[in-house]
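$ ./design --mode recover --in tokens.txt
reading tokens...
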């Protein structure tokens, strides 16, 4: 039977991977917000297949609205980060 020492290479690597994952979760909200802006700003683009009936009724049509909602749903890591700094 073997025992592992505290602070082994595997635990250090696992800790680094978890810290990287913590920072990676912060990338989703701004990425989706940028995609919403780019999709909403594309004036000459063909309409989305599901939104063809309401062609260009607002800048937030089809995919732009979906990206904006996705950005909102991915805000909790940012809010936790802000709350942690304010406390």
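writing sequence...
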């Amino acid at each position: 039977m073997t025992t592992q020492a505290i602070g082994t290479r595997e635990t250090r690597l696992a800790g680094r991977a978890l810290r990287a994952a913590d920072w990676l979760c912060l990338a989703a909200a701004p990425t989706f917000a940028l995609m919403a802006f780019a999709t909403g700003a594309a004036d000459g683009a063909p309409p989305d297949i599901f939104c063809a009936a309401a062609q260009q009724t607002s800048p937030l049509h089809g995919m732009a609205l979906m990206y904006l909602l996705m950005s909102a749903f991915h805000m909790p890591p940012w809010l936790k980060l802000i709350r942690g700094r304010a406390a």
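exit 0
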